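thought: user wants a sequence for this fold. calling inverse folding tool.
action: design(structure=
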């Protein structure tokens, strides 16, 4: 499915269910796509829990570029896709997330876009080193999220692992930033999704 955004066309892979209790919207890493193992693990967990799943390919990747667009463009495109999906599935609570860059986008947009939770896969706490050796801290992006967060990271992630907080659960798996442990990711994500949705009203399938 193509979705027009202020910065070009995004592509959305939508797995729908009849009368889903929720919609998990997932973004990809900076140079990757929507077939990353951890995204597919999260997708499997959400489908098993009865959620619809939308995996979003940002416009710069649709255009064939690997270098990511500026953060403001990523955020604007994400917001456009989220609004489009809300129109397709009105009244369905959304959970936003993604891996690495996609997790950052989901965190930055949480306050304005109103998800009931955020799934941060391989959230990069530290940026790659600059020429002077410094590594900017991206922790404030995930720390600013006030809805429940599940952060899933590899134990050897060179970009760091978020710490637990009052609203953030952290699961550390074997592996690195690529987070290729698809099965363990699914096993970590499913109970969090089910717990998040426990307090939400059940939806009946549309006629």
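)
observation: tool returned 207 residues.
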């Amino acid at each position: 499915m193509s979705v027009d955004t202020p910065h070009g066309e995004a592509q959305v892979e939508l797995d729908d269910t009849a009368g889903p209790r929720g919609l998990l919207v997932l973004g990809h890493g900076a140079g990757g796509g929507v077939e990353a193992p951890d995204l597919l693990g999260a997708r499997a967990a959400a489908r098993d829990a009865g959620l619809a799943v939308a995996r979003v390919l940002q416009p710069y990747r649709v255009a064939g570029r690997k270098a990511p667009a500026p953060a403001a463009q990523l955020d604007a495109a994400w917001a456009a896709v989220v609004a489009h999906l809300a129109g397709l599935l009105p009244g369905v609570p959304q959970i936003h997330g993604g891996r690495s860059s996609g997790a950052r986008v989901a965190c930055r947009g949480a306050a304005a876009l109103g998800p009931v939770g955020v799934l941060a896969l391989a959230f990069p706490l530290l940026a790659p080193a600059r020429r002077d050796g410094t590594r900017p801290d991206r922790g404030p992006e995930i720390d600013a999220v006030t809805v429940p967060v599940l952060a899933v990271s590899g134990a050897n992630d060179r970009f760091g692992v978020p710490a637990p907080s009052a609203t953030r659960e952290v699961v550390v798996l074997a592996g690195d930033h690529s987070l290729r442990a698809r099965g363990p990711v699914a096993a970590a994500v499913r109970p969090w999704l089910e717990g998040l949705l426990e307090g939400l009203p059940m939806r009946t399938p549309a006629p």
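thought: summarizing for user.
answer: Here is the designed sequence. The beta strands are 2-5, 8-15, 23-27, 52-57, 94-99, 117-121, 149-154, 168-173.
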